[in-house]
Design brief:
The structure holds two protein chains of two kinds. Chain A is α/β, with parallel strands linked by helices. Chain A contains 15 helices and eleven strands. An eleven-stranded mixed sheet of chain A has the order 1-3-2-4-6-5-10-11-9-7-8, with helices on both faces. Chain A is globular. Chain A starts with a helix and ends in an 11-residue tail after the last helix. Chain B is mainly α. In chain B, 35% of the residues lie in helices and 4% in strands. Chain B is built from three helices and two strands; from the N terminus they run H-H-H-E-E. A two-stranded antiparallel sheet of chain B has the order 1-2. In chain B, a hairpin with a 2-residue loop joins strand 1 and strand 2. The longest helix of chain B is centred in the first third of the chain and has 18 residues. Classes of the chains: A alpha/beta, B mainly alpha. Chains A and B meet through helix 9, helix 10, helix 11, helix 12 and helix 13 of A and helix 1 and helix 2 of B.
Chain lengths: 479, 95
Protein backbone atom coordinates (compact mmCIF):
# COMPACT_ATOMS: atom_id res chain seq x y z
CA UNK A 1 0.00 0.00 0.00
CA UNK A 2 1.15 3.53 -0.72
CA UNK A 3 1.14 6.54 1.56
CA UNK A 4 -2.15 8.28 0.95
CA UNK A 5 -3.62 11.37 2.61
CA UNK A 6 -6.16 9.15 4.32
CA UNK A 7 -3.62 6.67 5.74
CA UNK A 8 -1.09 9.31 6.81
CA UNK A 9 -3.75 11.52 8.41
CA UNK A 10 -4.61 8.62 10.71
CA UNK A 11 -0.95 8.22 11.64
CA UNK A 12 -0.65 11.94 12.43
CA UNK A 13 -3.89 11.98 14.39
CA UNK A 14 -2.91 8.92 16.42
CA UNK A 15 0.56 10.41 16.97
CA UNK A 16 2.32 7.40 15.43
CA UNK A 17 4.63 9.97 13.86
CA UNK A 18 4.80 13.76 13.75
CA UNK A 19 4.48 16.05 10.76
CA UNK A 20 8.10 17.13 11.30
CA UNK A 21 9.22 13.48 11.05
CA UNK A 22 7.06 12.88 7.98
CA UNK A 23 8.21 16.11 6.32
CA UNK A 24 11.87 15.37 7.07
CA UNK A 25 11.50 11.94 5.45
CA UNK A 26 10.02 13.44 2.30
CA UNK A 27 12.68 16.18 2.14
CA UNK A 28 15.35 13.46 2.37
CA UNK A 29 13.67 11.51 -0.48
CA UNK A 30 13.60 14.69 -2.58
CA UNK A 31 17.25 15.51 -1.91
CA UNK A 32 18.33 11.99 -2.87
CA UNK A 33 16.15 11.88 -5.98
CA UNK A 34 17.44 12.19 -9.57
CA UNK A 35 14.04 12.90 -11.06
CA UNK A 36 14.51 16.72 -11.27
CA UNK A 37 10.89 16.98 -10.16
CA UNK A 38 11.41 20.17 -8.14
CA UNK A 39 12.57 23.63 -9.18
CA UNK A 40 12.62 24.96 -5.62
CA UNK A 41 12.76 22.93 -2.41
CA UNK A 42 11.29 24.96 0.45
CA UNK A 43 12.86 22.95 3.25
CA UNK A 44 12.98 25.66 5.94
CA UNK A 45 9.40 26.74 5.25
CA UNK A 46 8.28 23.09 5.22
CA UNK A 47 9.80 22.36 8.63
CA UNK A 48 8.27 25.50 10.14
CA UNK A 49 4.86 24.61 8.67
CA UNK A 50 5.27 21.04 9.99
CA UNK A 51 6.09 22.32 13.49
CA UNK A 52 2.98 24.53 13.44
CA UNK A 53 0.92 21.54 12.27
CA UNK A 54 2.25 19.35 15.10
CA UNK A 55 1.31 22.07 17.57
CA UNK A 56 -2.21 22.25 16.13
CA UNK A 57 -2.56 18.46 16.26
CA UNK A 58 -1.40 18.50 19.90
CA UNK A 59 -4.03 21.17 20.60
CA UNK A 60 -6.68 19.04 18.90
CA UNK A 61 -7.22 21.73 16.27
CA UNK A 62 -6.68 20.05 12.91
CA UNK A 63 -8.25 18.70 9.74
CA UNK A 64 -7.35 15.81 7.43
CA UNK A 65 -4.69 17.90 5.62
CA UNK A 66 -2.95 19.34 8.67
CA UNK A 67 0.72 18.41 8.52
CA UNK A 68 0.40 16.68 5.11
CA UNK A 69 3.45 17.21 2.84
CA UNK A 70 2.68 18.22 -0.74
CA UNK A 71 4.33 19.50 -3.90
CA UNK A 72 3.03 22.68 -5.53
CA UNK A 73 3.27 23.21 -9.29
CA UNK A 74 5.53 26.19 -9.89
CA UNK A 75 2.83 28.07 -11.75
CA UNK A 76 0.87 28.96 -8.60
CA UNK A 77 2.04 32.19 -7.00
CA UNK A 78 3.45 31.62 -3.52
CA UNK A 79 4.18 34.71 -1.45
CA UNK A 80 7.89 35.10 -0.67
CA UNK A 81 8.82 31.99 -2.67
CA UNK A 82 10.18 31.90 -6.23
CA UNK A 83 7.41 31.30 -8.78
CA UNK A 84 9.16 30.63 -12.09
CA UNK A 85 6.54 28.96 -14.34
CA UNK A 86 9.54 26.93 -15.57
CA UNK A 87 10.86 29.99 -17.39
CA UNK A 88 14.08 31.98 -17.37
CA UNK A 89 11.76 34.97 -17.71
CA UNK A 90 10.56 34.47 -14.12
CA UNK A 91 13.70 32.89 -12.65
CA UNK A 92 14.07 35.97 -10.39
CA UNK A 93 10.35 36.35 -9.60
CA UNK A 94 9.55 36.15 -5.89
CA UNK A 95 5.78 36.44 -5.81
CA UNK A 96 4.43 39.28 -3.63
CA UNK A 97 1.12 37.47 -3.18
CA UNK A 98 -0.47 34.04 -2.92
CA UNK A 99 -2.70 32.34 -5.47
CA UNK A 100 -6.10 31.47 -4.00
CA UNK A 101 -5.20 27.77 -4.23
CA UNK A 102 -1.94 28.49 -2.33
CA UNK A 103 -3.91 30.38 0.33
CA UNK A 104 -6.34 27.50 0.76
CA UNK A 105 -3.52 24.97 1.12
CA UNK A 106 -1.71 27.22 3.61
CA UNK A 107 -4.88 27.67 5.64
CA UNK A 108 -5.50 23.92 5.70
CA UNK A 109 -2.19 23.38 7.48
CA UNK A 110 -0.69 21.30 4.66
CA UNK A 111 3.11 21.44 4.37
CA UNK A 112 4.63 22.70 1.11
CA UNK A 113 7.78 20.72 0.30
CA UNK A 114 8.61 22.80 -2.76
CA UNK A 115 7.60 23.96 -6.21
CA UNK A 116 7.53 21.42 -9.01
CA UNK A 117 9.07 21.48 -12.46
CA UNK A 118 6.92 22.04 -15.54
CA UNK A 119 7.07 22.88 -19.20
CA UNK A 120 7.69 26.61 -19.53
CA UNK A 121 4.41 28.46 -18.85
CA UNK A 122 2.73 25.02 -18.99
CA UNK A 123 3.34 24.76 -22.74
CA UNK A 124 4.35 21.20 -23.47
CA UNK A 125 3.54 17.52 -23.17
CA UNK A 126 6.89 16.11 -22.06
CA UNK A 127 8.35 18.55 -19.51
CA UNK A 128 11.32 19.01 -21.83
CA UNK A 129 10.43 22.68 -22.40
CA UNK A 130 11.45 23.65 -18.86
CA UNK A 131 14.28 26.16 -18.37
CA UNK A 132 15.28 23.90 -15.43
CA UNK A 133 15.73 20.76 -17.52
CA UNK A 134 13.55 17.75 -18.20
CA UNK A 135 11.92 15.70 -15.46
CA UNK A 136 12.42 11.93 -15.53
CA UNK A 137 9.68 9.35 -15.25
CA UNK A 138 10.09 7.35 -12.00
CA UNK A 139 9.03 4.15 -13.83
CA UNK A 140 11.88 4.49 -16.30
CA UNK A 141 14.44 7.27 -16.12
CA UNK A 142 14.86 7.37 -19.91
CA UNK A 143 11.20 8.23 -20.37
CA UNK A 144 9.25 11.46 -20.07
CA UNK A 145 6.83 11.88 -17.17
CA UNK A 146 4.57 13.83 -19.56
CA UNK A 147 3.67 17.46 -19.23
CA UNK A 148 3.14 20.10 -18.43
CA UNK A 149 2.66 19.03 -14.78
CA UNK A 150 5.47 16.47 -15.13
CA UNK A 151 7.27 17.46 -11.94
CA UNK A 152 4.07 17.08 -9.92
CA UNK A 153 3.32 13.67 -11.47
CA UNK A 154 6.86 12.39 -10.97
CA UNK A 155 6.86 13.65 -7.37
CA UNK A 156 3.67 11.74 -6.49
CA UNK A 157 4.55 8.58 -8.44
CA UNK A 158 8.15 8.62 -7.14
CA UNK A 159 7.01 8.94 -3.50
CA UNK A 160 8.56 12.40 -3.14
CA UNK A 161 5.25 13.85 -2.03
CA UNK A 162 1.88 12.66 -0.74
CA UNK A 163 0.01 14.72 -3.33
CA UNK A 164 0.62 17.55 -5.76
CA UNK A 165 -1.19 20.39 -7.44
CA UNK A 166 -1.41 20.66 -11.19
CA UNK A 167 -2.99 22.73 -13.92
CA UNK A 168 -4.63 21.45 -17.09
CA UNK A 169 -4.92 23.65 -20.17
CA UNK A 170 -4.89 20.90 -22.81
CA UNK A 171 -4.25 17.77 -20.75
CA UNK A 172 -1.47 18.87 -18.40
CA UNK A 173 -2.88 17.06 -15.35
CA UNK A 174 -4.31 13.99 -17.09
CA UNK A 175 -1.47 13.12 -19.47
CA UNK A 176 1.36 13.16 -16.88
CA UNK A 177 -0.93 11.35 -14.42
CA UNK A 178 -1.47 8.68 -17.07
CA UNK A 179 2.21 8.39 -17.97
CA UNK A 180 3.25 8.19 -14.29
CA UNK A 181 0.47 5.88 -13.09
CA UNK A 182 -1.29 8.20 -10.64
CA UNK A 183 -4.80 9.64 -10.27
CA UNK A 184 -5.41 13.16 -11.55
CA UNK A 185 -8.51 15.31 -11.90
CA UNK A 186 -9.08 18.34 -14.12
CA UNK A 187 -12.25 19.98 -12.81
CA UNK A 188 -14.93 21.86 -14.76
CA UNK A 189 -13.67 25.24 -15.95
CA UNK A 190 -14.64 27.78 -13.29
CA UNK A 191 -14.77 25.36 -10.33
CA UNK A 192 -11.32 26.20 -8.93
CA UNK A 193 -10.02 29.76 -8.78
CA UNK A 194 -7.42 30.79 -11.35
CA UNK A 195 -6.38 33.81 -9.26
CA UNK A 196 -2.60 33.79 -8.93
CA UNK A 197 -2.18 30.94 -11.40
CA UNK A 198 0.14 32.26 -14.09
CA UNK A 199 -1.99 32.44 -17.23
CA UNK A 200 -1.18 30.54 -20.42
CA UNK A 201 -4.56 30.29 -22.18
CA UNK A 202 -7.21 31.83 -19.96
CA UNK A 203 -10.30 30.19 -21.48
CA UNK A 204 -8.78 26.72 -20.89
CA UNK A 205 -6.52 26.91 -17.80
CA UNK A 206 -7.92 25.06 -14.79
CA UNK A 207 -6.31 23.96 -11.52
CA UNK A 208 -6.65 20.45 -10.17
CA UNK A 209 -4.88 17.80 -8.12
CA UNK A 210 -2.69 14.76 -8.60
CA UNK A 211 -2.89 11.98 -6.04
CA UNK A 212 -2.53 8.26 -5.42
CA UNK A 213 -6.27 7.64 -5.15
CA UNK A 214 -9.61 9.09 -6.19
CA UNK A 215 -10.49 9.41 -2.52
CA UNK A 216 -7.48 11.68 -1.95
CA UNK A 217 -8.52 13.74 -4.98
CA UNK A 218 -11.98 14.16 -3.44
CA UNK A 219 -10.46 15.31 -0.13
CA UNK A 220 -8.42 17.95 -1.96
CA UNK A 221 -11.19 19.07 -4.28
CA UNK A 222 -13.30 19.74 -1.19
CA UNK A 223 -10.58 22.19 -0.18
CA UNK A 224 -9.69 23.98 -3.41
CA UNK A 225 -13.06 24.15 -5.22
CA UNK A 226 -15.34 27.11 -4.71
CA UNK A 227 -16.27 30.58 -5.83
CA UNK A 228 -13.59 33.27 -5.71
CA UNK A 229 -14.54 36.87 -6.38
CA UNK A 230 -10.92 37.60 -7.34
CA UNK A 231 -11.31 35.40 -10.45
CA UNK A 232 -13.84 36.86 -12.90
CA UNK A 233 -14.33 33.43 -14.49
CA UNK A 234 -14.97 31.65 -11.18
CA UNK A 235 -18.52 30.28 -11.13
CA UNK A 236 -20.72 31.09 -8.14
CA UNK A 237 -22.53 27.89 -7.20
CA UNK A 238 -23.10 25.86 -4.05
CA UNK A 239 -20.08 23.95 -2.76
CA UNK A 240 -20.32 20.16 -2.94
CA UNK A 241 -18.91 17.49 -0.64
CA UNK A 242 -17.04 15.19 -3.02
CA UNK A 243 -16.59 12.53 -0.34
CA UNK A 244 -20.29 12.27 0.42
CA UNK A 245 -21.18 10.25 -2.70
CA UNK A 246 -17.84 8.54 -3.28
CA UNK A 247 -19.14 5.17 -2.06
CA UNK A 248 -22.47 5.33 -3.91
CA UNK A 249 -23.40 2.40 -6.13
CA UNK A 250 -22.48 2.95 -9.78
CA UNK A 251 -24.52 0.00 -11.02
CA UNK A 252 -26.69 0.81 -14.02
CA UNK A 253 -24.65 3.81 -15.20
CA UNK A 254 -23.91 3.96 -18.91
CA UNK A 255 -20.39 4.35 -20.28
CA UNK A 256 -19.98 5.97 -23.70
CA UNK A 257 -17.06 4.77 -25.83
CA UNK A 258 -16.34 7.29 -28.60
CA UNK A 259 -15.13 5.51 -31.72
CA UNK A 260 -12.86 8.50 -32.50
CA UNK A 261 -10.85 7.73 -29.32
CA UNK A 262 -9.96 4.25 -30.59
CA UNK A 263 -8.66 5.22 -34.02
CA UNK A 264 -5.49 4.30 -35.92
CA UNK A 265 -3.03 6.34 -33.86
CA UNK A 266 -3.79 4.46 -30.63
CA UNK A 267 -1.18 1.92 -29.51
CA UNK A 268 -2.70 -1.59 -29.52
CA UNK A 269 -1.43 -2.42 -26.05
CA UNK A 270 -2.86 0.79 -24.60
CA UNK A 271 -6.20 0.08 -26.33
CA UNK A 272 -6.18 -3.40 -24.84
CA UNK A 273 -5.70 -2.11 -21.27
CA UNK A 274 -8.48 0.46 -21.75
CA UNK A 275 -10.89 -2.23 -22.99
CA UNK A 276 -9.97 -4.48 -20.05
CA UNK A 277 -10.83 -1.61 -17.70
CA UNK A 278 -14.16 -1.13 -19.49
CA UNK A 279 -14.83 -4.87 -19.08
CA UNK A 280 -14.13 -4.50 -15.37
CA UNK A 281 -16.80 -1.80 -15.23
CA UNK A 282 -19.19 -4.08 -17.13
CA UNK A 283 -18.63 -6.75 -14.52
CA UNK A 284 -19.50 -4.12 -11.90
CA UNK A 285 -22.91 -3.63 -13.53
CA UNK A 286 -22.34 -0.70 -15.87
CA UNK A 287 -23.66 -0.63 -19.42
CA UNK A 288 -21.51 0.24 -22.44
CA UNK A 289 -22.64 2.17 -25.46
CA UNK A 290 -20.72 3.03 -28.63
CA UNK A 291 -20.93 6.73 -29.35
CA UNK A 292 -19.42 9.23 -31.76
CA UNK A 293 -17.86 12.65 -31.18
CA UNK A 294 -17.73 13.50 -34.87
CA UNK A 295 -15.75 16.74 -34.64
CA UNK A 296 -12.91 15.27 -32.53
CA UNK A 297 -10.54 15.59 -35.49
CA UNK A 298 -10.75 19.36 -35.25
CA UNK A 299 -9.64 19.45 -31.60
CA UNK A 300 -5.93 19.84 -32.42
CA UNK A 301 -6.29 22.80 -34.82
CA UNK A 302 -9.03 24.43 -32.76
CA UNK A 303 -7.13 24.14 -29.49
CA UNK A 304 -3.70 25.11 -30.77
CA UNK A 305 -5.05 28.17 -32.61
CA UNK A 306 -7.11 29.48 -29.66
CA UNK A 307 -4.51 28.62 -27.00
CA UNK A 308 -1.72 30.26 -29.03
CA UNK A 309 -3.83 33.38 -29.57
CA UNK A 310 -4.59 33.62 -25.86
CA UNK A 311 -0.95 33.01 -24.92
CA UNK A 312 0.32 35.67 -27.34
CA UNK A 313 -1.90 38.15 -25.52
CA UNK A 314 -1.27 36.90 -21.96
CA UNK A 315 2.51 36.85 -22.31
CA UNK A 316 2.71 40.40 -23.65
CA UNK A 317 2.77 41.52 -20.02
CA UNK A 318 6.26 40.04 -19.71
CA UNK A 319 8.26 42.94 -21.08
CA UNK A 320 11.14 43.48 -18.67
CA UNK A 321 9.53 46.55 -17.08
CA UNK A 322 7.61 45.56 -13.94
CA UNK A 323 8.98 42.13 -13.00
CA UNK A 324 10.87 39.22 -14.47
CA UNK A 325 13.92 39.16 -16.71
CA UNK A 326 15.32 42.43 -18.05
CA UNK A 327 18.18 42.52 -20.57
CA UNK A 328 21.46 44.24 -19.71
CA UNK A 329 21.90 47.90 -20.73
CA UNK A 330 19.00 48.36 -23.16
CA UNK A 331 19.76 51.15 -25.63
CA UNK A 332 16.13 52.19 -26.04
CA UNK A 333 12.61 51.01 -25.13
CA UNK A 334 12.26 48.82 -28.21
CA UNK A 335 15.57 47.14 -27.44
CA UNK A 336 14.43 46.59 -23.83
CA UNK A 337 11.26 44.80 -24.95
CA UNK A 338 12.88 42.80 -27.74
CA UNK A 339 15.93 41.56 -25.88
CA UNK A 340 14.20 40.97 -22.53
CA UNK A 341 11.53 38.81 -24.20
CA UNK A 342 13.92 37.06 -26.59
CA UNK A 343 16.37 36.19 -23.80
CA UNK A 344 13.64 35.28 -21.29
CA UNK A 345 11.39 32.98 -23.33
CA UNK A 346 12.33 29.50 -24.54
CA UNK A 347 11.82 28.18 -28.09
CA UNK A 348 8.38 26.59 -27.67
CA UNK A 349 6.93 29.64 -25.91
CA UNK A 350 8.25 31.93 -28.65
CA UNK A 351 6.75 29.61 -31.24
CA UNK A 352 3.28 29.66 -29.68
CA UNK A 353 3.42 33.44 -29.27
CA UNK A 354 4.24 33.73 -32.98
CA UNK A 355 1.46 31.32 -34.00
CA UNK A 356 -1.02 33.38 -31.98
CA UNK A 357 0.30 36.70 -33.24
CA UNK A 358 -0.07 35.56 -36.84
CA UNK A 359 -3.51 33.98 -36.34
CA UNK A 360 -4.81 37.21 -34.79
CA UNK A 361 -3.24 39.53 -37.36
CA UNK A 362 -5.23 41.54 -39.89
CA UNK A 363 -6.50 39.37 -42.73
CA UNK A 364 -6.09 36.05 -40.90
CA UNK A 365 -8.40 36.45 -37.87
CA UNK A 366 -11.48 35.00 -39.61
CA UNK A 367 -9.62 32.07 -41.17
CA UNK A 368 -7.97 31.00 -37.94
CA UNK A 369 -9.22 32.43 -34.63
CA UNK A 370 -12.89 32.83 -35.53
CA UNK A 371 -13.05 29.51 -37.32
CA UNK A 372 -11.34 27.74 -34.41
CA UNK A 373 -13.90 29.21 -32.02
CA UNK A 374 -16.71 27.92 -34.22
CA UNK A 375 -15.11 24.46 -34.33
CA UNK A 376 -14.90 24.69 -30.54
CA UNK A 377 -18.68 25.12 -30.44
CA UNK A 378 -19.19 22.00 -32.57
CA UNK A 379 -16.85 19.95 -30.37
CA UNK A 380 -18.67 21.10 -27.24
CA UNK A 381 -22.08 20.35 -28.83
CA UNK A 382 -20.89 16.79 -29.63
CA UNK A 383 -20.31 16.19 -25.92
CA UNK A 384 -23.67 17.63 -24.92
CA UNK A 385 -25.39 15.35 -27.40
CA UNK A 386 -23.45 12.34 -26.07
CA UNK A 387 -24.33 13.12 -22.46
CA UNK A 388 -28.03 12.86 -23.30
CA UNK A 389 -27.58 9.08 -23.48
CA UNK A 390 -24.49 8.26 -21.39
CA UNK A 391 -23.34 9.12 -17.85
CA UNK A 392 -19.61 9.05 -18.44
CA UNK A 393 -17.33 8.87 -21.46
CA UNK A 394 -14.27 6.63 -21.28
CA UNK A 395 -11.18 6.23 -23.40
CA UNK A 396 -7.41 6.53 -23.32
CA UNK A 397 -5.65 9.64 -22.01
CA UNK A 398 -2.63 9.28 -24.24
CA UNK A 399 -2.15 7.31 -27.47
CA UNK A 400 1.00 5.67 -26.04
CA UNK A 401 2.67 4.99 -22.74
CA UNK A 402 5.54 7.28 -21.67
CA UNK A 403 7.83 7.95 -24.63
CA UNK A 404 11.62 8.32 -24.65
CA UNK A 405 13.09 11.65 -23.57
CA UNK A 406 14.40 13.65 -26.55
CA UNK A 407 12.55 11.41 -29.00
CA UNK A 408 10.11 13.98 -30.42
CA UNK A 409 11.93 16.77 -32.18
CA UNK A 410 9.30 19.11 -33.54
CA UNK A 411 6.35 20.94 -32.01
CA UNK A 412 3.72 19.71 -34.47
CA UNK A 413 4.50 16.04 -33.70
CA UNK A 414 4.33 16.74 -29.96
CA UNK A 415 0.91 18.40 -30.39
CA UNK A 416 -0.44 15.15 -31.89
CA UNK A 417 0.14 13.33 -28.58
CA UNK A 418 -2.60 15.53 -27.03
CA UNK A 419 -5.29 14.15 -29.33
CA UNK A 420 -7.47 12.61 -26.57
CA UNK A 421 -7.21 15.36 -23.97
CA UNK A 422 -7.75 18.65 -25.85
CA UNK A 423 -11.47 18.36 -26.62
CA UNK A 424 -12.26 18.24 -22.89
CA UNK A 425 -10.62 21.64 -22.39
CA UNK A 426 -12.33 23.08 -25.46
CA UNK A 427 -15.68 22.11 -23.89
CA UNK A 428 -14.69 23.08 -20.31
CA UNK A 429 -15.59 19.61 -18.99
CA UNK A 430 -14.24 17.75 -15.95
CA UNK A 431 -12.11 14.68 -16.61
CA UNK A 432 -9.80 12.30 -14.80
CA UNK A 433 -6.93 9.95 -15.45
CA UNK A 434 -7.12 6.74 -13.45
CA UNK A 435 -4.43 4.01 -13.42
CA UNK A 436 -5.69 1.12 -15.57
CA UNK A 437 -2.75 -1.22 -15.97
CA UNK A 438 0.72 -1.51 -17.42
CA UNK A 439 2.22 -2.08 -20.82
CA UNK A 440 5.88 -3.13 -20.83
CA UNK A 441 6.24 -1.92 -17.24
CA UNK A 442 4.88 1.53 -18.04
CA UNK A 443 1.53 2.80 -16.70
CA UNK A 444 -1.60 3.22 -18.80
CA UNK A 445 -4.23 5.77 -17.75
CA UNK A 446 -7.97 5.48 -18.34
CA UNK A 447 -9.72 8.78 -19.06
CA UNK A 448 -13.12 9.46 -17.49
CA UNK A 449 -14.99 12.45 -18.92
CA UNK A 450 -18.16 13.82 -17.35
CA UNK A 451 -20.59 16.62 -18.07
CA UNK A 452 -20.06 20.04 -16.46
CA UNK A 453 -20.03 19.92 -12.64
CA UNK A 454 -20.07 16.10 -12.49
CA UNK A 455 -16.83 15.81 -10.47
CA UNK A 456 -18.64 13.95 -7.68
CA UNK A 457 -19.83 11.31 -10.13
CA UNK A 458 -16.39 10.93 -11.74
CA UNK A 459 -14.69 10.56 -8.36
CA UNK A 460 -17.34 8.03 -7.32
CA UNK A 461 -16.77 5.97 -10.49
CA UNK A 462 -12.97 6.18 -10.11
CA UNK A 463 -13.14 5.21 -6.43
CA UNK A 464 -15.33 2.17 -7.13
CA UNK A 465 -12.87 1.08 -9.84
CA UNK A 466 -9.97 1.45 -7.40
CA UNK A 467 -11.83 -0.71 -4.87
CA UNK A 468 -11.85 -3.50 -7.48
CA UNK A 469 -8.35 -3.02 -8.91
CA UNK A 470 -4.82 -2.68 -7.63
CA UNK A 471 -3.15 -0.58 -10.37
CA UNK A 472 -3.15 2.61 -8.25
CA UNK A 473 -1.25 0.80 -5.48
CA UNK A 474 1.71 -0.08 -7.71
CA UNK A 475 4.89 1.90 -7.14
CA UNK A 476 8.05 2.14 -9.23
CA UNK A 477 11.20 0.59 -7.80
CA UNK A 478 13.06 3.13 -5.66
CA UNK A 479 15.72 4.68 -7.86
CA UNK B 1 -0.10 27.71 -46.83
CA UNK B 2 3.56 28.47 -46.68
CA UNK B 3 5.37 31.02 -44.52
CA UNK B 4 8.72 32.25 -45.75
CA UNK B 5 11.53 33.66 -43.64
CA UNK B 6 10.52 37.26 -44.31
CA UNK B 7 6.99 36.61 -43.07
CA UNK B 8 8.25 34.82 -39.95
CA UNK B 9 10.59 37.71 -39.27
CA UNK B 10 7.66 40.12 -39.56
CA UNK B 11 5.55 37.99 -37.18
CA UNK B 12 8.42 37.89 -34.67
CA UNK B 13 8.71 41.64 -34.84
CA UNK B 14 4.96 42.07 -34.22
CA UNK B 15 5.32 39.76 -31.20
CA UNK B 16 8.25 41.80 -29.86
CA UNK B 17 10.70 38.93 -30.35
CA UNK B 18 14.02 38.99 -32.15
CA UNK B 19 15.33 35.81 -33.77
CA UNK B 20 18.87 34.88 -34.76
CA UNK B 21 19.38 33.60 -38.33
CA UNK B 22 19.48 30.05 -37.00
CA UNK B 23 16.26 30.57 -35.01
CA UNK B 24 14.59 32.16 -38.01
CA UNK B 25 15.44 29.13 -40.13
CA UNK B 26 14.23 26.57 -37.58
CA UNK B 27 11.09 28.55 -36.73
CA UNK B 28 10.13 28.93 -40.38
CA UNK B 29 10.24 25.14 -40.68
CA UNK B 30 8.39 24.57 -37.39
CA UNK B 31 5.69 27.19 -38.01
CA UNK B 32 4.93 25.72 -41.43
CA UNK B 33 4.47 22.29 -39.88
CA UNK B 34 2.18 23.75 -37.21
CA UNK B 35 0.06 25.65 -39.73
CA UNK B 36 -0.16 22.46 -41.82
CA UNK B 37 -1.96 20.91 -38.82
CA UNK B 38 -4.51 23.72 -39.07
CA UNK B 39 -5.40 23.18 -42.74
CA UNK B 40 -7.95 20.50 -41.80
CA UNK B 41 -10.07 23.29 -40.34
CA UNK B 42 -10.56 24.89 -43.75
CA UNK B 43 -12.65 21.89 -44.83
CA UNK B 44 -15.12 22.39 -41.98
CA UNK B 45 -18.37 24.17 -42.79
CA UNK B 46 -19.17 26.55 -39.93
CA UNK B 47 -21.51 28.94 -41.73
CA UNK B 48 -24.33 28.70 -39.20
CA UNK B 49 -22.23 28.15 -36.10
CA UNK B 50 -21.75 30.83 -33.46
CA UNK B 51 -18.22 31.18 -32.08
CA UNK B 52 -17.62 29.80 -28.58
CA UNK B 53 -15.57 32.30 -26.63
CA UNK B 54 -16.01 30.84 -23.18
CA UNK B 55 -16.40 27.21 -22.08
CA UNK B 56 -19.14 27.91 -19.57
CA UNK B 57 -22.25 29.87 -20.48
CA UNK B 58 -22.03 32.67 -17.91
CA UNK B 59 -22.09 36.44 -18.06
CA UNK B 60 -18.93 38.34 -17.26
CA UNK B 61 -19.17 39.31 -13.62
CA UNK B 62 -18.20 42.85 -12.65
CA UNK B 63 -16.79 43.93 -9.32
CA UNK B 64 -18.37 46.69 -7.28
CA UNK B 65 -16.50 49.95 -7.80
CA UNK B 66 -15.00 50.22 -4.32
CA UNK B 67 -11.58 49.87 -2.74
CA UNK B 68 -11.17 46.40 -1.26
CA UNK B 69 -7.42 46.07 -0.97
CA UNK B 70 -4.68 48.21 0.51
CA UNK B 71 -2.05 49.89 -1.62
CA UNK B 72 0.61 47.28 -2.31
CA UNK B 73 2.74 49.33 -4.69
CA UNK B 74 5.82 49.04 -2.47
CA UNK B 75 5.64 45.23 -2.43
CA UNK B 76 5.01 45.10 -6.15
CA UNK B 77 7.77 47.56 -6.99
CA UNK B 78 10.25 45.71 -4.79
CA UNK B 79 10.50 43.02 -7.48
CA UNK B 80 10.76 45.43 -10.43
CA UNK B 81 14.07 45.69 -12.31
CA UNK B 82 14.29 49.51 -11.94
CA UNK B 83 12.07 52.00 -10.11
CA UNK B 84 12.23 55.52 -8.73
CA UNK B 85 9.65 57.44 -6.67
CA UNK B 86 6.84 54.94 -7.40
CA UNK B 87 7.64 54.94 -11.13
CA UNK B 88 8.96 52.09 -13.25
CA UNK B 89 12.08 53.20 -15.12
CA UNK B 90 12.72 52.45 -18.79
CA UNK B 91 15.23 53.98 -21.22
CA UNK B 92 14.38 57.57 -22.13
CA UNK B 93 11.74 57.76 -24.89
CA UNK B 94 11.49 61.55 -25.37
CA UNK B 95 14.62 63.71 -25.32
Amino acid sequence: MQNTIKSLANGLKNKEFSSVELTTDYLNFINKSDLNAFITITDELAISQAKAADQNIANNSFNILTGMPYAHKDIFCTKGVKTSAGSKMLDNFISPYNATVSDKLDNSGAVMLGKTNLDEFAMGSSNENSYYGAVKNPWNLNKTPGGSSGGSAAAVAGELSVFATGTDTGGSIRQPSSLCGITGIKPTYGLVSRYGMIAYASSFDQAGVMTKTAEDSAILLNLIAGFDEKDSTSVNRNNEDYLKTINDSIQGLTIGLPKEFFSDGLDDKVANKIMLAVKEFESMGLKVKDISLPHSNYAIPSYYIIASCECSSNLLRLDGVRYGHRCQDPKDLQDLYLRSRSEGFGDEVKRRIMVGTYALSAGYYDAYYLKAQKARRLISDDFQKAFQSVDVIMGPVSPTTAFDLASIHDSASMYLSDIYTLSVNLAGLPAMSVPAGFSQNLPVGLQLIGNHWSEAKLLNIAHKFQEQTNFHNQTPAKI
Amino acid sequence: MSLNKDKVSEIASLAMLSLTDEQLKSNTKELNKIFDLFTELSQLNVDDVSPMTHPININQRLLEDKVVDKDKSKEFQAIAPKTKDRYYLVPKVIE
